[in-house]
């Protein structure tokens, strides 16, 4: 059963309307549930995202949420957001004529099969930050400093810890500690400091 938002998406005026319509026809052959998320049609299996169809200014295409597991015999898949996502892959088109229905449907069906088999990307849990001894000692000695450090994001905390940890000499570690204490008090991260200088 289609949703009004999905129907409206496919009926809107866009240079890629014909191509989007072809992709929708193919998507509906997979037996997935047609839903609407992030302002575009998404096709799901048991509530899990398998692929989405979307149009942009210069292209349209299919987003495979766990595309890293697709065999990609035609070598058409691109990493959707280089560096930001490990799993998502995108197949771009610039016209309806570029769509080889048989190949596209094969990719879609493989994505469905992968989902059924549990081939789903699970991000590695972030390692907890180990606070170097010198910094830990400084934080314990000054509750206000410890409070300021605790209120910082994990990313900022990790930056400070790595800054001290990467120093080889004890003397350098102490100099670095001296440098970051006022920054922690002010709630300023390492990168903020570099941007200002």
From TrEMBL:
The organism's place on the tree of life at top rank: Bacteria
InterPro entries: YdhG-like
Every YdhG-like domain range: 17-111
Gene3D superfamilies, A to Z: 3.90.1150.200
Pfam families given in the database record: DUF1801, OmdA
The name this protein goes by in its record: YdhG-like domain-containing protein
Source organism of the structure: Muriicola jejuensis
Lineage: Bacteria, Pseudomonadati, Bacteroidota, Flavobacteriia, Flavobacteriales
């Amino acid at each position: 059963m289609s949703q009004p938002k999905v129907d409206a998406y496919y009926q809107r005026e866009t240079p890629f309307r014909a191509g989007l319509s072809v992709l929708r026809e193919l998507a509906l052959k997979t037996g997935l549930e047609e839903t609407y998320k992030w302002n575009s049609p998404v096709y799901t299996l048991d509530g899990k995202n398998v692929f989405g169809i979307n149009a942009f200014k210069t292209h349209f295409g299919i987003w495979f949420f766990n595309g890293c597991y697709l065999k990609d015999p035609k070598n058409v898949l691109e990493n959707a957001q280089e560096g930001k996502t490990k799993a998502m892959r995108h197949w771009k088109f610039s016209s309806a004529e570029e769509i080889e229905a048989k190949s596209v449907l094969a990719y879609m069906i493989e994505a469905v099969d992968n989902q059924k088999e549990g081939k789903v990307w699970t991000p590695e849990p972030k390692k907890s930050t180990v606070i170097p001894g010198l910094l830990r000692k400084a934080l314990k000695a000054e509750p206000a400093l410890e409070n300021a450090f605790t209120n910082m994001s994990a990313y900022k905390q990790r930056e400070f810890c790595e800054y001290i940890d990467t120093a080889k000499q004890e003397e350098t570690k102490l100099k670095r500690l001296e440098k970051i204490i006022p920054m922690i008090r002010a709630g300023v991260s390492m990168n903020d400091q570099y941007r200002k200088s």
